[in-house]
Design goal:
With 195 residues, the chain is of the alpha+beta class. The protein has seven helices and five strands. It has helices at residues 54-65, 76-89, 94-102, 110-113, 126-133, 147-159, 165-194; strands spanning 2-8, 24-33, 40-46, 71-73, 104-106. It has a three-stranded antiparallel sheet, with helices on both faces. It has a two-stranded parallel sheet with strand order 4-5. Helix 1 packs across helix 2, helix 5 (126-133) packs across helix 7 and helix 6 (147-159) runs antiparallel to helix 7 (165-194). It is globular and about 50 Å long. The two termini are 22 Å apart. 29% of the residues are buried.
Protein backbone atom coordinates (compact mmCIF):
# COMPACT_ATOMS: atom_id res chain seq x y z
CA UNK A 1 0.00 0.00 0.00
CA UNK A 2 1.58 3.24 -1.17
CA UNK A 3 -0.12 6.06 0.74
CA UNK A 4 0.08 9.84 0.43
CA UNK A 5 -2.04 12.48 2.15
CA UNK A 6 -2.60 16.08 1.20
CA UNK A 7 -3.56 18.24 4.16
CA UNK A 8 -4.57 21.75 5.13
CA UNK A 9 -3.90 23.84 8.23
CA UNK A 10 -5.08 27.14 9.62
CA UNK A 11 -4.15 29.50 12.49
CA UNK A 12 -7.77 29.17 13.64
CA UNK A 13 -8.80 25.54 14.25
CA UNK A 14 -10.98 24.34 11.40
CA UNK A 15 -12.86 21.67 13.37
CA UNK A 16 -13.80 21.15 17.01
CA UNK A 17 -11.10 19.15 18.76
CA UNK A 18 -8.27 20.28 16.46
CA UNK A 19 -5.54 22.80 17.21
CA UNK A 20 -4.15 25.81 15.34
CA UNK A 21 -1.81 24.91 12.46
CA UNK A 22 -2.55 21.19 12.87
CA UNK A 23 -2.39 19.51 9.46
CA UNK A 24 -5.71 17.88 8.63
CA UNK A 25 -5.80 15.23 5.89
CA UNK A 26 -8.35 16.16 3.24
CA UNK A 27 -7.17 13.93 0.41
CA UNK A 28 -5.29 10.73 -0.16
CA UNK A 29 -4.00 8.57 -2.95
CA UNK A 30 -3.47 4.84 -2.42
CA UNK A 31 -1.74 2.57 -4.91
CA UNK A 32 -1.94 -1.13 -4.10
CA UNK A 33 0.29 -3.98 -5.24
CA UNK A 34 -0.71 -7.40 -3.94
CA UNK A 35 2.74 -8.78 -4.89
CA UNK A 36 5.89 -7.55 -6.68
CA UNK A 37 5.13 -7.16 -10.39
CA UNK A 38 1.44 -7.68 -9.62
CA UNK A 39 -1.49 -5.71 -10.99
CA UNK A 40 -1.46 -2.15 -9.72
CA UNK A 41 -4.74 -0.82 -8.29
CA UNK A 42 -5.48 2.78 -7.40
CA UNK A 43 -7.88 4.33 -4.89
CA UNK A 44 -8.31 8.00 -4.09
CA UNK A 45 -10.37 10.34 -1.99
CA UNK A 46 -10.80 14.11 -1.96
CA UNK A 47 -12.90 15.74 0.78
CA UNK A 48 -14.80 18.66 -0.75
CA UNK A 49 -17.29 19.69 1.94
CA UNK A 50 -16.93 21.70 5.15
CA UNK A 51 -17.89 18.68 7.24
CA UNK A 52 -15.00 17.12 9.19
CA UNK A 53 -13.13 14.62 6.98
CA UNK A 54 -11.94 12.18 9.65
CA UNK A 55 -14.80 9.67 9.64
CA UNK A 56 -14.95 9.51 5.83
CA UNK A 57 -11.20 8.96 5.44
CA UNK A 58 -11.02 6.37 8.22
CA UNK A 59 -13.96 4.43 6.75
CA UNK A 60 -12.59 4.40 3.20
CA UNK A 61 -9.08 3.42 4.24
CA UNK A 62 -10.48 0.64 6.44
CA UNK A 63 -12.37 -0.75 3.44
CA UNK A 64 -9.42 -0.42 1.06
CA UNK A 65 -6.52 -1.56 3.23
CA UNK A 66 -7.73 -4.05 5.81
CA UNK A 67 -5.63 -5.75 8.48
CA UNK A 68 -2.60 -7.05 6.58
CA UNK A 69 0.09 -5.66 4.33
CA UNK A 70 2.83 -3.06 4.52
CA UNK A 71 2.20 0.62 4.02
CA UNK A 72 4.83 2.66 2.21
CA UNK A 73 5.03 6.43 2.43
CA UNK A 74 7.62 9.08 1.61
CA UNK A 75 8.57 10.95 4.79
CA UNK A 76 6.19 8.71 6.69
CA UNK A 77 6.10 10.79 9.88
CA UNK A 78 3.66 13.09 8.07
CA UNK A 79 1.27 10.25 7.18
CA UNK A 80 1.68 8.76 10.66
CA UNK A 81 0.70 12.07 12.26
CA UNK A 82 -2.43 12.31 10.09
CA UNK A 83 -3.32 8.73 11.03
CA UNK A 84 -3.07 9.58 14.73
CA UNK A 85 -5.32 12.63 14.28
CA UNK A 86 -7.87 10.65 12.25
CA UNK A 87 -7.95 8.02 15.01
CA UNK A 88 -8.39 10.70 17.67
CA UNK A 89 -11.17 12.49 15.81
CA UNK A 90 -12.92 9.29 14.61
CA UNK A 91 -12.43 6.97 17.62
CA UNK A 92 -14.01 3.91 16.01
CA UNK A 93 -11.02 3.89 13.61
CA UNK A 94 -8.37 4.61 16.25
CA UNK A 95 -7.06 1.04 16.53
CA UNK A 96 -7.02 0.64 12.76
CA UNK A 97 -5.16 3.94 12.21
CA UNK A 98 -2.61 3.03 14.90
CA UNK A 99 -2.16 -0.35 13.21
CA UNK A 100 -1.44 1.41 9.90
CA UNK A 101 1.38 3.28 11.64
CA UNK A 102 2.82 0.02 12.99
CA UNK A 103 2.87 -1.37 9.44
CA UNK A 104 4.40 1.72 7.80
CA UNK A 105 7.80 1.97 6.12
CA UNK A 106 9.42 5.23 5.05
CA UNK A 107 10.76 4.82 1.51
CA UNK A 108 12.61 8.13 1.81
CA UNK A 109 15.02 6.70 4.41
CA UNK A 110 16.67 4.51 1.76
CA UNK A 111 17.77 7.66 -0.03
CA UNK A 112 19.08 9.39 3.08
CA UNK A 113 21.91 6.97 3.81
CA UNK A 114 21.77 3.81 1.70
CA UNK A 115 21.18 4.73 -1.93
CA UNK A 116 23.01 7.94 -2.71
CA UNK A 117 23.50 9.59 -6.08
CA UNK A 118 25.20 12.92 -6.75
CA UNK A 119 22.26 13.84 -9.01
CA UNK A 120 20.00 13.98 -5.92
CA UNK A 121 22.08 17.06 -4.97
CA UNK A 122 22.31 15.96 -1.35
CA UNK A 123 18.53 15.70 -0.97
CA UNK A 124 16.17 12.77 -0.44
CA UNK A 125 12.92 14.42 -1.50
CA UNK A 126 10.60 12.57 -3.85
CA UNK A 127 10.94 15.26 -6.52
CA UNK A 128 14.76 14.99 -6.36
CA UNK A 129 14.90 11.19 -6.51
CA UNK A 130 12.19 10.52 -9.10
CA UNK A 131 13.75 12.32 -12.11
CA UNK A 132 17.05 10.53 -11.53
CA UNK A 133 15.70 6.99 -11.10
CA UNK A 134 12.53 7.15 -13.22
CA UNK A 135 13.05 9.99 -15.71
CA UNK A 136 10.05 8.99 -17.85
CA UNK A 137 7.66 9.81 -15.01
CA UNK A 138 7.35 13.53 -14.34
CA UNK A 139 5.29 16.15 -12.56
CA UNK A 140 5.80 18.41 -15.58
CA UNK A 141 2.48 19.24 -17.18
CA UNK A 142 0.49 18.90 -13.96
CA UNK A 143 -1.42 21.99 -12.94
CA UNK A 144 -0.43 21.40 -9.29
CA UNK A 145 3.18 20.42 -8.71
CA UNK A 146 3.79 20.74 -4.97
CA UNK A 147 2.27 19.99 -1.59
CA UNK A 148 1.96 23.62 -0.53
CA UNK A 149 0.05 24.49 -3.70
CA UNK A 150 -2.17 21.43 -3.16
CA UNK A 151 -2.91 22.54 0.42
CA UNK A 152 -3.81 26.08 -0.67
CA UNK A 153 -6.00 24.72 -3.46
CA UNK A 154 -7.86 22.31 -1.17
CA UNK A 155 -8.47 25.08 1.34
CA UNK A 156 -9.86 27.36 -1.38
CA UNK A 157 -11.94 24.51 -2.79
CA UNK A 158 -13.56 23.69 0.57
CA UNK A 159 -13.72 27.05 2.33
CA UNK A 160 -13.58 29.57 -0.52
CA UNK A 161 -15.85 30.58 -3.39
CA UNK A 162 -13.92 28.81 -6.10
CA UNK A 163 -15.18 28.58 -9.64
CA UNK A 164 -14.35 25.57 -11.82
CA UNK A 165 -14.52 23.18 -8.87
CA UNK A 166 -14.62 20.07 -11.05
CA UNK A 167 -11.46 21.08 -12.91
CA UNK A 168 -9.73 21.90 -9.62
CA UNK A 169 -10.74 18.55 -8.13
CA UNK A 170 -9.27 16.82 -11.21
CA UNK A 171 -5.97 18.70 -10.77
CA UNK A 172 -5.76 17.77 -7.08
CA UNK A 173 -6.46 14.11 -7.79
CA UNK A 174 -3.82 14.04 -10.54
CA UNK A 175 -1.20 15.54 -8.26
CA UNK A 176 -1.79 13.21 -5.31
CA UNK A 177 -1.98 10.23 -7.69
CA UNK A 178 1.44 11.17 -9.06
CA UNK A 179 2.94 11.13 -5.54
CA UNK A 180 1.97 7.52 -4.90
CA UNK A 181 2.64 6.38 -8.47
CA UNK A 182 6.13 7.87 -8.15
CA UNK A 183 6.70 5.77 -5.02
CA UNK A 184 5.53 2.65 -6.84
CA UNK A 185 7.93 3.24 -9.74
CA UNK A 186 10.84 3.96 -7.39
CA UNK A 187 10.01 0.79 -5.44
CA UNK A 188 10.02 -1.18 -8.73
CA UNK A 189 13.37 0.41 -9.64
CA UNK A 190 14.80 -0.74 -6.30
CA UNK A 191 13.50 -4.29 -6.83
CA UNK A 192 15.28 -4.47 -10.19
CA UNK A 193 18.45 -3.01 -8.68
CA UNK A 194 18.75 -5.60 -5.91
CA UNK A 195 18.16 -8.61 -8.21
Amino acid sequence: YFLDYEAISSPIPLYNGTRPWKFIAMQYSLHVLDKPNGTLKHFEYLHTTKRPPFEAIGKRLREQIGDTGTLIAWHSSFEEGRNVLIGKMAPKYKDFMNDLNRRMIDLKLIFKDRYLDYRFKGRAGLKKVLPVLVPKLSYDGLEIQGGMKAAETIYDLVFGNMKNKKKTEKWLLEYCDMDTLAMVRIYEFLLKTIK
